[in-house]
Amino acid sequence: MSTGCGRVTGVNGNLVYVESDVGGGCSSCGASAFCRVKEAPVKKSSWMKNSAGASEGDLVEYETKTGHVILIAALHYILPVTMLAAGAIAGSQSALSALAGITTDAAAALTGTAGLFAGLAAGFLVSMLLRRKGILITEVIRVNAGSENRA
After folding, report:
1. The overall pTM is greater than 0.90
2. Dihedral over alpha carbons 39, 44, 49, 51 (to 10 degrees)
3. Residue range 10-19: average pLDDT?
């Protein structure tokens, strides 16, 4: 489970828009020793499920479940590479090279590239649909003491 802290800058129903420093969740990340994202001078921001009843200006703590991170990684990394390999194998075994007048290697490269882009598009669309259904969404779990709008 990855956690971080940020400030609510917008509210829309059961969702809050949270801005935080890029390195906010770096302490709990296994890749923090070699990752360079935390050195960037920018903030990250996203819509999150408001399970803690936060309002604009509040300092909040949020979490992303490990299973969600694994699913996102599978959709955005493993699926496209798998589709690339499947496309390359299918292209090398098909009659495309004879029909198009190209070598078997060129057919494998073309169908592998098509598979890669199909995998990227499918991963993006599935993750977008899951986020819209509230399945893959980071959740605000706590409003921290000292928030502007809390006593």
Report:
1. no
2. 50
3. 90
Cβ neighbours around 115 below 10 Å, total: 22
* For the ranges 8-17, 55-64, 67-76, 80-89, the one whose mean pLDDT is highest: 80-89
The DSSP code for 144 is P
Quote the DSSP letter at residue 74. Answer: I
The rounded Cα 124 to chain-centroid distance in angstroms is: 9
Q: Are 133 and 142 in contact (CB under 8 A)?
A: no
Nearest to 18 by CA among 34, 1, 3, 31: 3
Estimate to the nearest angstrom the gap between the alpha carbon of 78 and the chain centroid: 13
Overall average pLDDT of the 18-44 stretch: 64
pLDDT at 83 over 90: yes
Query: Could you tell me which of 136, 122, 34, 38 has the C-alpha nearest to residue 77?
Result: 122
